[in-house]
Queue: 2 jobs
Job 1
Amino acid sequence: MESPVRVLIHGGNGRMGQSLQRLCRNDGRFEPVGAVSRKVGPRVVDGVPQFAASELAGAPAFDVAVDFSLPEGFDRVLGMCLSRGKPLVSGTTGLTDVQQAALAAAATRIPIAWAANFSLGVALLHDLVARAARALPGWNCDIIESHHTRKQDAPSGTALSLGALAAEQGAEPRYASIRAGDIVGEHTVQFTTAGERIELIHRAGDREIFARGALHVAKALHGQAPGLYRVADLLG
Ligand code: NAD
């Protein structure tokens, strides 16, 4: 039998990190070798060793790092993957242009997959939005996104990547963000002209879909050559 992929979870005790730890523990294809968080409480949780961000350099050997943290933690996990020559899967949103450039530069040395959204449905939504934007020149394009009140960045990374795709096709996207209750994530891309409107909507009901997608991508990335991989290709 294939040996499990050893996963280091960065952002370990966050909402996404906990979901990743749970999935890894219950799936023989993965071995969670450690979880790194800004601060730690108990040193081991359900058999998974826990590390503080300041201890990252001493984290155990891993095959792939999966990062769902915050922009302030991103540089360090990228640096560690570079120094160990290991792949990075990251879903951290709100990265600065400088961080995005560092990510692209690092991809010449290690395999990297970054996406604002790891759900299969949103990968398809990107294709539909590009198609609609191409077919509807001159229509208004509005992207409305809703998330829970603790989300820090706005517009969401997913809204921005949908908007970037629409803009490539000539649309001029505008954004609206709603922060309410415990909404996991909803994106509506609306194309409007006089007398008619098209709405393309994705609703995430459970953040486990993102964690599942990220682990699927982590397994696909393990053993690949350096490069920046498109998540939509690896999710399929
Ligand atoms: P959260 O606030 O619940 O968790 C953040 C985690 O990051 C915590 O474990 C925290 O300890 C850790 N962290 C913060 N600063 C750190 C640092 N300096 N070094 C190391 N770790 C640090 O957030 P969340 O809801 O789990 O989301 C995490 C990230 O993932 C956000 O950027 C969010 O937008 C993004 N996200 C992406 C997707 C996707 O599919 N790409 C889906 C959901 C969330």
Job 2
Amino acid sequence: MSDSVMPGASQLLSKHVEESQAASLRAEHLTCEMLVNPLGTDEPHPGFSWQVVGTGYNRLQSAYRIIVSDDRQTVAEGLGTHWDTGHIQSDESLHIVYRGRPLSPFTRYYWTVELWDENGSNSAAAQIAWFETGLMGGTWPATWIMAPDVGPEGKLPPAGTSYDNEFSLDPCLYLRCSFTIGRPVVSARLYATALGVYKASLNGDPVGDHEFAPGWTDYAKRLSYQTFDITSNLVLGDNVLAALISDGWYSGYVGYNRRKPAAHYGNKPEFLAFLRIVYEDGEVETIGTGPHWQAGRGALVYSDFLKGEKCDATLAALGWDRPGFLASGWRLCGAGRGTPAKLEAQREEPIRVQMEIPAVAVRAAPDGSWVFDFGQNIVGRVRLRLAAPRGTSVSIRHAEALNPDGSLYTANLRSAPAHDIYVASGESEELYEPQFTFHGFRYAAVSGLPSQPSLHAAVARVLGNDLRRTSSFETSSELINRLHANIAWSQRGNFLAVPTDCPQRDERLGWTADAQVFFHTAAYLADVSAFYRKWLVDVQDAQSEDGAFPDVAPQICSDRNGAPAWGDAGVLVPFWHYERYGDVRILRDHYPSMRRWMNYVGRANPEGLRLHELNLNYGDWLSLDGTASKPVLATAYYALTAQVMAKTAEILEHAEDLAEYTRLHEKIRSSFQRAFIDAAGRVQGGTQTAYLLGLYTGMFPTELEEAAFGHFVADLEAHDWHLTTGFIGVRHLCPILTAYGRPDLAYHLVLDTTYPSWGYSIVNGATTVWERWDGWTQDRGFQTPSMNSFNHYAFGAVGEWLYGSMAGIGAAGQTGAFKHFSLSPAPGKGIEWCSAAFDSPRGSIRAAWRRHPDGISYEFAIPANTTANIILFREVDARILLNNQEIADDQDIHKVTLSLGSGNYQVNVWHKPTSHAQACNNL
Ligand code: RAM
């Protein structure tokens, strides 16, 4: 095989440059701290980013100028009173860190950026973006509040029912405070947080649309707060600020070791908030939580992630959140215990309702309940429309699958009842949707209704962090399209506060291996930069004294730390995040903890093999071929982390560390070869994952790589061309097959519908990715209910290959957050066409291909200010046409690389110059 960069391409390009009467560049998608117009940041040096957009070819940003001011008009006039970078000769467009005048708290700053293109021409003005600072570490003019002290006098009236013994839940608490506005207001903000979860309202209207605020962090160390703009909700005269709080992650049930009183963080929810009002005369007033707030009960009896929610509309305290409510029976709040944790402005997109899904069927179940089928396994809850006599108790249970008799299959929920109860008020029409719980389900069984519900009586409301979708992907194969959709659905629902393993059973934890194997797939499907950056802080917060990164973050299972491939996430994900999103601050922030992990592993394993301090050593979790490769897996990860440390040290210019980690990597590699690889290139254990990890991490001597790959392929063959990989190996299956010249086998695996394969789950009805290859099989039915989630994204790590290799965006490499990247589609048997788009941090990349009788046509879009290598394979006598012009040819070349700048390209690779090809050329 020969390999060359086509000389003709660059000539063609200069022609394009001449031809392109390119319009000026534009800066679009302006972000600050990876978010669009963040309301409330505590970052004293926020990073600014934009995408460079411009028509034509080879467009480049040659310079930029950022201006920042606390006045919009000033920025519109081109003045930066707080920061003006001046004309900076640079093609950088990501994370330019603010170096202007110190930022003040509670201030909105406006900014924009001006660009210069490759010819030095100036861009049109970009939109004006903004960010607003929060408290910036200042003191809260408020005190924590909670339910009044428990005692004969202080006790609030019970909210109705007693709670079952298994779950002891705190009744949801209603909090209110009246105040008067006497003169015109120019701006008002609410700053709020809770130990628990909260929803705030002003004069009865919801404040914001966040769900489960303040989200989940290690509450002992840090707590997010939210900022809401409530200027338009305030009225002259009487106002009521109100909040509803519940247990959430703080004092509710989560995880498998869920029992109270050992609530993971605390026993009772608390609330902290203040309003900051700026009057027209410039005066500022704050109204904070404190002992003058009133506490009461209402319709929401309890709400819990695992148990579900109970809402008794007959107990509703009507008008409790508005002025004029007679709060009889309400008490003054108790003083909260508060927290020594650091209060920080939320740094990631909030959780929101993402969409609504109508039911596709409703059927009677054997127990008389009505089972709604939403046609899609989701994470969220049901919104039910009903009419029933006052006091009627309606119950909603949830399940991912059905038993053969049509009843809900709930065994796999383990101890999570996932059971919502609504007691009707008796109005002619009522709408009920739980507030502080979520479930993983496709089916919902509703019982207690007086009559058969219509199909439209229930909709499913999908919940998740509100991440920007960054891709589209479609092929001629319905199976592949469904696989892609299943992966996207599993990400959507499980990216809820933290990347969780699953949404339905008593678990819902931020397992670190799951989150690292899926990182690259996740980063194609959505902009996960802020989301993962936040979770990496959770990982860091959970690092143990001796340096072990956790198996779950936030860490609520103290026995779970430091397993190979789990703990290693603390080193790998910061580095991958940097590669993908280009923010070097991530590396700086995590480097000390990354070093501590390396020391932790190194201390116990001085010989360079990772054989000790393996902790719960899960191996290639849920693989189908036993656990023979555990030492291989652990050591390959050790090598990988050493290599990542060397690269990080180089980027951060720590010369000594670079030398140290380069030596360590070499030592691990040679120890690995001595201990695990024989002269014929066989690896100890011989599992698919052992070969895949060995190849991925470069552990084989170069001369044995082909042999090792051959043994791996032989293992696939021995399993009748089936995979056996678990969570750790699965990510590398298709990429390694493709990189070593057998994309045909990768296609075989993704198109296979026999057990075990992704396709097997799909032909058996999967609408999300299953936790286990054999979650359900024709022979055995459901796997053991003790661990059988139908919504677990880990095996969805194949998504990286769909984008990277099938479509071809980035698999052969990318640097600088897609400043330079490969476009190397690998068309394969069984697929006629594939079309993908990926909105990278630097702009939208597109890759598409389609088969024709005489060859394959490709379409590519390379964003402005980036370059790409298009890498194609062809028969040696095939002709290559770039934008309809034949490029200079060399008959011996099999692998062709076209190095191109920005623009839209069509490349045709025609095997024979037949009339069809000719016709297409002329199009
Ligand atoms: C399971 C989780 C998770 C996995 C661990 C080891 O309980 O679901 O996916 O990482 O175990």
